[in-house]
Amino acid sequence: MSDFAAQPLPSWKRAVLKVGSSLLAGSGGLDPVHAHSLAQFITHARTQGREVVLVSSGAVAAGRGRIGAAGNGIVQRQALAALGQASLMGFWQALFEIPVAQVLLTHDDLRNRRRYLNARTALKELLRLGTLPIVNENDTVAVDELKLGDNDNLAAAVASLVEADLLLIATDIGGLYSGDPQRDSYARPIERVDTVTPALLGMAGTAGTLGTGGMRTKLEAASKAATAGIATALFCGRDAAVVAALGDGVLHGTLVAALGSRISARKQWLRHAPASGVLQVDAGAWPALLRGASLLPGGVRKVSGDFRRGDVVDVQSSDGELLARGQAQYNAGESVRIAGRHSRDIEVLLGFRYDEAMIHRDDLVLLSSAEQQSSEKTA
To answer: Quick one: angle between helices 59-67 and 74-93, nearest 10?
Structure first.
């Protein structure tokens, strides 16, 4: 068992699990010796009614195993990633009875508002369908990401994207130590981190031989997840007992605490984000928002501004009072066309439908005076 003492794993319903290539690569491509226990953990979590999104490295290693090619330059790795993606999916599919679904992303997909929402919609639908989404960087085109080896940070971005409660990062050592445990006999395990500081990053080791990231990138990812209100657990993916304990809510590893709750972090961002437009609602929509409902097109009377899907917009009453703020599911032109209409008419009017709501309740925050009304109603 690990050097790390047992501690409770934070409560979670949806998690992102990141698995690096150092846990998957064997002498001739991909080796399932460590993947078996990770797959068993995912299967066990699903029987508990939980959802898991897997962020998996290993495409380059799989491609290298298929053709035995040498070389580690950017162009070679791009080609090997393209060769290995199918093998990587087949590798994971063999470990599950449920269907696995491949999702290839780059950081540009997560920076562009429209593509960000499209990716989130697709991932949530895959979870709803009972599949296992497997996310990887689109290494064949993501040159900069290949140089940085950023699947750890991609996993943090995906955790925020799917509104996960927990980020799990499987490593090839027990967790974070005060020094390199392979070189420093006095290195001690660090079981909890409340804040990722520059000094803490200085303790982190460099990249391993097979992987392109090291403990530093894992701490950077944990720091990003923390700011989104998501805790991160670092644990040894080579230790089957450590992995099995996760299914019982026990962590032998390093826990990087969240900075506040996931919901509060998102609401704080929405509260202060600049608005690109206004949706004016009727008197009937407002009580529904107070009850925690999404903003449906039937309750919208007027659309102002020039905004894109994913932009933040203000929600106002008919007399101009600012009620709420949220992310628009449709751009300004589309919003004008569906305002005042029933949700079932969206696809007829636009030829497609992203969501039944113009602002989903998960993407909406009531502002100060509105929150006061809400609290009075629920008191």
So the answer is: 100
